[in-house]
Amino acid sequence: MHRRASLVLLALAVFFAALSPLLRWYAFPRLAKVPPSQYQEMVLEARPATLLDYGTLQAKEVEKVTIVQTLKGNVEESEKIERSAGRDVVVWDALSYIQGPDGKMVSQIPERYIFDAHSQAPVHATGESVDGDPVRREGIEYKWPFLTEKRDYEYFDAQTRTSAPIHYKGTRSYRGLDVYYFEQTIPWTKVPFPKKMPIPGVDAATLEKQTGTTRWYTTKRMFWVDPVTGAPVNGEEIHTEELRGGTLLGGRDKVTAFAGHVKMRPDYVADTVELVKSQRTLVLLLTSHLPWGFLVLAGGLLVLSLALEARSRRSRDHGPEPDPQPLPA
What we know:
Helix content: 25-40%
Shape: elongated
Order of helices and strands: HEEEHEEEEEEEHEEEH
Largest sheet: 13 strands, antiparallel
Strand content: 35-45%
Distance between the termini: 41 Å
Structural class: alpha+beta
Number of strands: 13
C-alpha cells in the first residue's frame, strides 16, 4: 500500500515540476498580451501654460492647456496584419487633441501604432503613420514590455518621427507600487506643423512652404512604469514649442507657440494605478507565484514519496512477525 502511494506522489511531483517552467516560458508569452480591442483615454494638463493666440500671433499666459489622448484598438486591422505577420498584433488608432482654456482646438495629431501584443516590439505594416505621414517606428511607444528591465529603451517621439533612448533612472515608490523611473530629453528639433491648426486663412498642411515659418520643439519626458505589466502609472513632460522666422511672424525671429509642464490629471492617475494593480496580479501568477509554488509543491511531494518508499522497504526487509510459540503445560 505504501509503495503504491509513493509512486502516485512521485508522479505528481514530476507533473508539477514540469508544469512550473511551462507556465513561465510557454504559457506566459501566449497569455500575457495587450487585448486588440483595448480602449483607453487619458487627460493631461499644463497649469499654467504659455500659448500662442493664432488670431493675433502673440504668446500669452493662460490658466491651462488640456491634452486629451485616446488609444483605440482596431480589431479589424489587427486581424488583417496578423494573417501576414504570423503573430498576435495590436493596432492602436491614437489621437492627441490639444485644446486651450476656452475649450477650442489648438491642434490634433492622429497616429496609427502597430506592435506585437506580447513584446510591444513595433510591427511594420501598411498604415503605420503619424498625422497621416508614413513612419517606421523603432523601439516602444506608450507602453513598456511586460517584465520591464532596469535598462535604457528606444522610445519613439511622434513630433520628430524618430526614436531616441529613454534612460532608466532608478526605482522609486509611487502610490504603493515600486516603479521604474525613465527620462528622455529631445533637444531643439525642427518638426512638421500639425495638419489641423486654428490658423485663419492659412493651410496648416503647407504652412511652412507658404510662409517660410518653421516649427521647433524640445521636451523632457518622464515616466513612472510598473515593471510587472510595463504600464506607465504616471507621465509628465516639460514641453516647449516655437515658431521661427518667415513672413507669418511679421519680422520677428521667433515666438513661443506652447510652453508648459504637462501632467496627468490626478483622477486619471488614481484610476490608472488601480487598473495596473489588478493587472499585475495576473502577470505575477504566471511568472512568479504559480511557477515557484508548483516547484515547492513538487519538492514536498517528492520528499513525501521518498519517505513512504523508505517505510515500505523497511517493512519488506523485516518480513512478517513470526507466530508466538505455545508455552509448555
